[in-house]
Amino acid sequence: MQRLDKNADGEISIKEAVADPIILESFSRIDINGDGLISRHELTTVHVRRSHGSALN
């Protein structure tokens, strides 16, 4: 999160996500609320889903 959050606002924008191809490719699935930003909560939620074998829909 810190590596990508260049402006230190606590969220990853699409412009910041271009630095990580995996995050960029999955951006719309990680951005659960669709606000165009990935929060720490959204990143954690996706990580928990993956670790429990749930698909990202």
Automatic annotation (TrEMBL):
InterPro entries from the xrefs?
A: EF-hand-dom_pair (IPR011992), EF_Hand_1_Ca_BS (IPR018247), EF_hand_dom (IPR002048)
- Name listed for the protein in its UniProt record: EF-hand domain-containing protein
Domain annotation EF-hand: ranges? 18-53
Q: Which domain of life is it from?
A: Bacteria
Q: What does the record give as the organism's lineage?
A: Bacteria, Pseudomonadati, Pseudomonadota, Gammaproteobacteria, Alteromonadales
Pfam families referenced in this protein's UniProt entry, alphabetically = EF-hand_5 (PF13202)
Q: Which GO terms describe its molecular function?
A: calcium ion binding
